[in-house]
Design brief:
heterodimer, A: 465 residues, mainly alpha, two-stranded antiparallel ribbon, 69% helix, B: 335 residues, two-stranded antiparallel sheet, 13 helices, 78% helix, globular
């Protein structure tokens, strides 16, 4: 039976999943562009400028999609989750308002100058604008992850007589216990996602033409980034997990598939089929004691299971269990790709090892999948609460009837698949052109800069061919 | 005591954000609404280019309106959004089509017409829904027990349809006068010719809405016809008349800047009129500004940053407008 609550949850999951794809990419890409531009200004090596011009057009489209899907999010709390908005508004609302004031305006304000202001404002101000856009994406991530972290590990508040969360200590609210870990984990994820896309695009072009200097440069930069960031991300993820164990034990139990408590050492369940009804994992493949070792750093440390959590407070185990495994597996593969590229560098075969390039292409979208799997793990793992331990999802809903939500959900699905499907097609088409061709993803028709940017198609000074 | 002042300061800031949004995004939505009236693809290209570098910043004020309401008047946000569920969702979907059209339109030859229509349809529906939402808010929203208590179709009335159409026509006027200011040659002439009938229509709608608003609610009527507030009933129409006259003269004399500024002036006056009607309500007739406000800790914490940040935002927004100042060359954007 599709209730209004379930439909609203599906709608939130759908719209937020679509949305996160674009920021995950544009946070990393904005920093990459700032770095490319800085390198161009410092070295005057044309290759960097070619790459900057190539990726800035892709950035414009991805950023645009992030903006329009983000506006939906800012209104959806009110339309579908009115009780949550009323009660949690005094605490999380100000943080979101600060996100708009410190990040969105900064990004939007300087984007036009970054994309096509070089000729109008000169190199210095153009660099400043590019840096501001990159900074804006990071500030945005900081505020919104603070909001999300507070929903997982609420702190610094009291509860008023009308059920509202009342702020008592802003410092404690913003820097709530899971925030630093979540912020680091997500920003690294964004950088890794972008590096994988760049490496994948570079790999694709290397398979066709090994001589293009811009292609070679971006493959080298991206694989270097993966090599450094992937292991750090695994470490950061592990620390985030330990923090979650401390504050949201039920989530970790679901991730691990631990329905029963293990008083003297818990096994690590590699794979299996969690069965919430029977409160057990069927066909489990286990490694004895390893879970206790990872989580408690001791073979025989006791670990509680979901049998200590009332049924009505348990998250849906199967989803959390599997999404967590997808994320971890991809993380390991990313680290593997980084090591392979290091080996290729050492052998002097970074640019002529087709198998490596094919692997890079295959791993191109891996960052997006891992980001989505990670968000599913943490958000579904928070259930059945919106504000962990204090406000249930079932109590957070607007006074809506199922048909109204169903109608809007269908509309969102149709529109998103059409609009973002077209956008993805354009992005892939732009990526399929080798850097330096100075085209907009059009093989014919007018040559033009990004749609957000008026002006000449090519600044004579910016030409690199 | 401080709470009273804080919530009223905030009501002013939110009102200011909405006003800035209407003034800035109004003309770029208007440019989209006028898309079918352009003669050919080149005219549409140059119209879009005139707002391309700034539309994103303009639309951010809408996000600030939503985010600000959530932060400082969470109860109003929690009541208004479900009450206006269909128009809000329709507006969001429309803004998606319109926003991506800015980018997609240049990425394709075969589908360019499709994204032209997406840009027009998105701008039209977004403007219409904003007007409908405004009308629904003016006619009042039923609240019981900190939640919306009305029906699913309460928002749709002849009055809200009227305000919806009024906003569409008004934004089109802003768009036409903007194009008259920023463009040159044939397309400028063309948009200036459109501006006159649009101005007449806008004034017509303004009169209609002004007549029907007091009929809706005794409170509004009292506000407008009882001394001392009745001063406004006299002053606002006089100012509207003067502004409209200046607008007409500017168009007839083919001035660049005056018609756009006068069109903005009409919006400002209409906005003041709505403000007078609402005060001290935030969600008429049920919620006052004070009742809907978040606790003082939230108001103060957000206010400190806002007072610093909004001027800074206005400065660099102004800088962006300055960078992209002057006429858009019809050949700009082409090689």
């Amino acid at each position: 039976m599709l209730t209004a609550e379930l439909l609203a949850r599906i709608q939130f999951a759908f719209t937020v999943s679509f949305h996160i794809i674009f920021p995950a990419f544009s946070i990393g890409l904005a920093s990459y562009l700032a770095m490319l531009n800085a390198l161009w200004l410092r070295t005057r090596d044309e290759t960097y400028l070619t790459l900057f011009n190539h990726w800035k057009k892709i950035f414009a489209v991805a950023f645009g999609m992030g903006v329009v899907s983000g506006i939906v999010m800012s209104y959806q709390f009110g339309t579908n989750w009115a009780v949550f908005s009323d009660r949690a508004g005094p605490v999380v609302g100000p943080l979101m308002a600060y996100e708009v004031l410190t990040a969105f305006f900064l990004e939007a304000g300087f984007l036009g100058i970054m994309l096509f202001g070089r000729r109008r404002v000169g190199d210095g101000l153009h660099m400043f604008a590019t840096a501001m856009v990159a900074l804006g994406t990071l500030i945005s991530a900081t505020w919104i992850l603070s909001v999300n972290s507070w929903m997982h590990t609420p702190a610094g508040f009291s509860i008023g007589e009308n059920g509202q969360f009342l702020p008592e200590d802003w410092w404690a609210i913003i820097f709530n216990p899971s925030f630093p870990y979540r912020l680091v984990h997500m920003v690294l994820a964004a950088y890794l996602t972008t590096a994988l896309v760049v490496a994948g695009v570079a790999g694709w072009h290397l398979l066709r033409d090994r001589t293009n200097p811009a292609t070679r440069r971006m493959f080298s930069m991206a694989t270097g980034m993966i090599l450094v960031v992937a292991p750090i991300q695994i470490l950061a993820g592990d620390m985030h997990g330990l923090n979650t164990l401390e504050h949201q034990p039920a989530k970790v139990m679901a991730m691990e598939g631990h329905f029963e408590s293990h008083p003297d050492g818990a096994p690590l369940i590699l794979f299996g089929l969690p069965d919430q009804e029977a409160q057990t994992v069927r066909w489990a493949v286990e490694i004895p004691y390893l879970s206790s070792l990872i989580l408690k750093h001791s073979f025989t440390a006791p670990l509680d299971g979901l049998d200590t959590i009332p049924r009505e407070d348990q998250p849906p185990v199967a989803i959390v269990f599997w999404s967590f495994r997808v994320m971890v597996t991809l993380g390991m593969l990313m680290a593997g790709l980084g090591l392979w590229s290091l080996w290729a560098r050492y052998k002097g075969r970074l640019y002529d090892w087709p198998a490596l390039h094919r692997a890079a292409v295959a791993m191109g979208p891996a960052g997006f999948v891992a980001v989505l799997a990670g968000w599913i793990t943490t958000e579904v793992g928070r259930q059945p609460f919106t504000v962990y331990g204090h406000l249930r999802t079932s109590e957070s809903l607007s006074p809506l009837e199922a048909p109204a939500v169903a109608t809007s959900l269908v509309a969102f699905i149709v529109v998103y698949f059409f609009v973002f499907g077209a956008g993805t097609f354009y992005l892939l088409r732009m990526m399929s052109l080798p850097p330096g061709t100075e085209r907009m993803g059009l093989r014919d028709g007018p040559i033009r800069t990004a749609g957000i940017t008026p002006g000449l198609a090519e600044d004579p000074r910016e030409r690199s061919d | 005591m401080a709470g009273l002042e804080l919530s009223f300061i905030w009501a002013g800031i939110i009102a200011f954000s909405v006003l800035v949004y209407v003034i800035l995004d109004g003309f770029d939505l208007g440019v989209g609404i006028l898309f079918p009236f352009a003669k050919d693809e080149r005219e549409r290209d140059v119209m879009m280019n005139s707002v391309a570098p700034i539309w994103d910043g303009n639309e951010t004020w809408l996000v600030l309106g939503g985010g600000g309401l959530f932060a400082v008047f969470p109860l109003a946000y929690a009541v208004v959004m479900p009450a206006l569920y269909p128009p809000i969702i329709a507006m969001l979907l429309a803004l998606i089509f319109r926003g991506v059209a800015f980018e997609y339109r240049w990425r394709t030859v075969r589908w360019k017409r499709l994204w032209d229509w997406a840009f027009f349809g998105g701008s039209l529906v977004a403007a219409l829904m904003q007007g409908v939402a405004l009308g629904a808010l003016v006619q009042g929203i039923e609240v019981e027990n900190r939640a919306y208590a009305g029906g699913r179709w309460d928002w749709l009335t002849p009055f809200s349809a009227l305000t919806g159409m009024a906003v569409v026509v008004g934004f089109a006027l802003l768009g036409a006068t903007w194009c008259n200011m920023k463009l040159e040659g044939r397309v400028q002439e063309h948009m200036r010719r459109l501006a006159l009938p649009l101005a007449v229509a806008t004034l017509g709608f303004l009169v209609l809405v002004s007549i029907f608003t007091p009929l809706h609610d005794a409170v509004y009527a009292e506000r407008w016809f009882r001394w001392p507030t009745a001063v406004w009933s006299f002053a606002v129409p006089v100012l509207v008349g003067l502004t409209a006259f200046r607008l007409w003269r500017g168009l007839v004399r083919a001035e660049d800047r005056a018609p756009f500024l006068c069109a903005l002036g009409l919006f400002l006056l209409a906005f003041i009129g709505i403000g007078i009607s609402f005060y001290p309500m935030i969600v008429p007739p049920a919620l006052t500004i004070r009742e809907a406000a978040a606790p003082d800790e939230s108001l103060l914490f957000t206010l400190v940053g806002t007072l610093v940040l909004i001027p800074i935002i206005l400065i660099y927004t102004g800088y962006t407008y300055w960078v992209f100042r002057g006429k858009i060359d019809a050949d700009e954007g082409y090689h």
